[in-house]
Amino acid sequence: MDRQIRRLGLGLLFLFLLLLGQVNYVQFIAAEEIADNPANAYRQLVAEYVVDRGDMLAKDGTTVLAMSKRSPGAFVFERRYPHGPLYAGITGYYSLYYGRTELEQTFDDYLSGDAAELLPTTFADLVLGRPKQGASIVTTIDPLVQQVATDQIADLPEGGAVAAIDPESGDIIALASNPTFDPNRLATLDPKAVREAWDELNADPENPLLSRANDELYPPGSTFKIVTASAALENGFGPDSLWPNPHELDLPLTTHGLSNFGSKTCPGGSRISLAYALQISCNVVFGGIGLELGADKMAAQAHAYGFAPDAASGDVDADIPFQEGVFPDPASFVQREPALAFSAIGQQDVAANPLQLALVAGAIANDGILMRPRLVTEVRDPQGRVVRAFPPEEATRPIDERSAARLTDMMVSVVEDGTGWRAAVPGTTVAGKTGTAQHRKGAKPHAWFVAFAPAENPEVAVAVLVLDGGSLGDDATGGELAAPIAKAVIEAGLET
Amino acid sequence: MSRAATTSPRGRTGLGLTLTAIVASVSAIAMVGLGLRDRVPQNLSIYGPLIVVGFAAVHVAIRKVARNADPVLFPTAALLSGLGLAMIFRLPARMGGRPGELAFEQATWLGLGLALVVATLIVIRDHRRLDAYTYTLGLGGLVLLLLPIVPGLGKSVNGARLWVELGPLSFQPAELGKVLIVVFLASYLSAKRELLQFGTLKVGPLRLPHPKHLGPLGVAWGASLAVLFLERDMGASLLYFAIFVVMLWVATGRAGYLVLGLVLFAAGAWLGYQAFEHVQTRIDVWLQALDPEKVPLQGYGQLAQGQFAMATGGLVGSGLGRGLPDLIPFVATDFIFAAFGEELGLLGTTGLLLVYLVLIGRGLRAAIEAQDDFGKLLAVGLTAAVGLQAFVIAGGVTRLIPLTGVTLPFVSYGGSSLVSNFIILGLLIRVSAGPWAQRRKATTDG
After folding, report:
1. Interface test with A, best of B39, B303, B362, B368 (most A CBs within 10 A)
2. What average pLDDT does the segment B387-405 reach?
């Protein structure tokens, strides 16, 4: 009998070895495949929330834009945004029920610890049975500039937006929108509260979830004249080149003409220089420049600045979703010359947003080199080691150095002697351009200001949008409403 | 602790292992509380002492009444039941229930089970005394096995008719019946083994005993089929038959019985498959468990959720109290192995399987060391009962074999199961220790 008992032992051992093989298969070899089963959705969803998602930090490395807090009672982490709505357009939200946006979406691999660079630390978490820790990301946002920009547009009745960048690195130092939202309301784990917030934000006709600074498009108005001026300079016309200055520009194919703001004649005689036309923002002259240069050159210049032929086909490599400005392909202007003239002064077919125009200003400030808009400089693992760094990158060269210097001088006179005088900052030279854009019959125009400073050695480029003319109604010009905001942002930018 | 408990090498081994089981069980309960709610659970002050006092008392009692007992048997079972209690501490009774609502009941049964180990050892001072009641025990076992079929007594739970209701009490008599039948078989086979050993009937290459000696095999097969057909309990049916065939083979040393057993098993399985839709469903569930379209269907989700839980647990698991085993239907009874897989990972499931292997090894060692045929067969049967049952349910949960609902011995929630397994443990300890009085005399002489 003892022989059979030993064999029985071997038999049972064999059965348990089969079991050991099977648990290895289920829990190790095929574990990922089994867990990825579409029918396992709930567990997959919850799995995301047991990750100690990484922080988002401002440029200073200490101001926390987004963080994870372990929620009491359950072993899950709740996403928190300590400054409420202040950085909403940069961080986006991270919601159990409604997904994620902005950096929460684009840097999800790092924040959630799934990126390959983080394997050493997440493997340690796994072995030690700790919750998986994601990496933190350091952004380019300057808390002071962001705060000033947000405060400046906070009281605008119809809202507005600001984008500020460092021209040399392409770093986005501020990105503010009014209206905006508090991402904490979508990140809470209370399903009822989240649903209420979500329904409320989506039902809001002002659409606060969309950032005015980089998600939407508006006619850029006269600020676009710096693009038209760039095209002229790049095509052999100097700042002193003289252009016809009629009361109204005759347009081909139509009995209508193109006139100046308030239907006035621009001062300076029958022919005025390119530089002076920019200084006084003369529509008639710039419409004429657009027609003279033609659709090919205008489109090429705009596209070199990052504008796309249509809203769906931009190619600027930004760290968060960015709606590039729009300037149509030349083909669309065939037999539509009037549209080209209006586009040259930033109306009709042209559209942009503050981030797009800040990129344009930044390129002019940076000797004609447009830097990739950078929002994240580095990724740090939970021990604080840098696992990935993103150095500044050159994107395009829309204009050459000489054109950039000439355009800078022209924009300096806009602030020193022209429409942009309210943007002047004592002790430094500001280069800028105003804009007032009609966008709908009967609606108040949008007010714009695009600027950079100091002109000799630029540290900050900014674009400001005041929607629907702000409080001054139809008479608003970019110079009156947007320039003072740009001034405040520039001062904050130069302070840091 | 008395001197007797610590002075012999076996005593020291037993004490050390028992302490290990105590520490592991109490820490597991504390960790479940920490994992679930970030604090040591308040009722650790109830369950902690139960485990410390209960396990230590049984250890001391074994040193008194079964002095030469195998020192590993009790601590392994104690560890399994302690870990089981810790896991039940965090599982709800049904999906959507509160964690731990079964813990008090399970702890009560655990206390009763521990008392029954000691009671078994005291009542059965010499296992050979059981040999005298062969047919009484066999009949009792059969009655208990088939009791749920009696109209008015039996009650169906989840399609299987396993329960007997007596007023407020409901229990699974088959669990206890299993123990009695193993004792009966050990007694019967040790008496008839010589008759069954020599084959006179030739069926092809097989030499089988005379048909009149094959009667018991037929009875066992019939009883198994009765359990399958009348109680619709596939797992128990398979288990009883397997235990019987294994004991028959060990008793006679004739592999022919194993072959014949397999043939009969195949025939029974085929019959079951033809006769019952629920058996067909089981097979389909086994093969299609992870088909995303079938997972939401009635009957399919459990196996899939168990697989998802174990796969999510991965190598080291989520940590006790930190997984989502509540998503698995009947997780506290049939699927507790998957809960361990999720929260303690591959390391945890491997550990559990190894503990069972230790228990099996020790049980078979007791069989080999037993001086009498009855003792040997008794230890073999009891060990096979625990080992095969663990294999059937762990194999079902991991999808190695089709799932049949039986409990994971010592670990699963369930009073009848826990109590019967502790009686099995008591009997195994008795066989390993030998008769109480005789050994005591031998020690005095030495």
Report:
1. B368
2. 93
DSSP codes, B120-183: HHHH-SSGGGGGGGHHHHHHHHHHHHHGGGSTTTEEEETTEEEEEEETTEEE-HHHHHHHHHHH
| Reported pTM | 0.64
For residue B441, pLDDT beyond 50: no
| Predicted confidence (pLDDT) at residue B445 exceeds the cutoff of 60 | no
Give tens-digit pLDDT for A408-443: 999 999 999 888 888 889 999 999 999 888 887 777
Question: How many CA atoms, within 13 angstroms, populate the side-chain half-sphere of residue B176?
Answer: 17
Residues of B in contact with A75 (CB under 8 A): 35, 321-322
Judge whether B125 and B165 are in contact, CB under 8 Å. no
Q: Does the distance separating the beta carbons of B319 and A46 come in below 8 Å?
A: no
Out of 3.40.50.2000, 3.40.710.10, 3.40.50.300, 3.40.309.10, the CATH code matching A221-375+391-495 is 3.40.710.10
Task: Work out the average pLDDT over B127-146.
Answer: 87
Range 26-45 of B in CB contact (< 8 A) with A: 35, 37-38
What ranges do the domains of chain A cover? 221-375+391-495
Which region holds residue B375: left if phi is over 0, alpha if psi is between -120 and 50, else beta? alpha
What backbone torsions phi and psi does residue A314 show, to the nearest 5 degrees? Answer: -75, 155
Note the pLDDT tens digit of each residue in A453-489. Answer: 999 999 999 999 999 876 565 555 778 889 999 999 9
**Burial A327-357, CB ≥16 within 10 A → b, else e:** bbebebbeebbbbbbbbbbbbbbbbbbbbbb
**Residues whose CB falls within 8 Å of the CB of residue B74, separated by 6 or more in sequence, listed in order:** B14, B18, B58, B59, B62, B117, B425, B429
The residue among B247, B291, B353, B354 with the most chain A CBs within 10 A of its CB, best to mutate, is B353
Q: Which residue has the higher pLDDT, A131 or B397?
A: B397
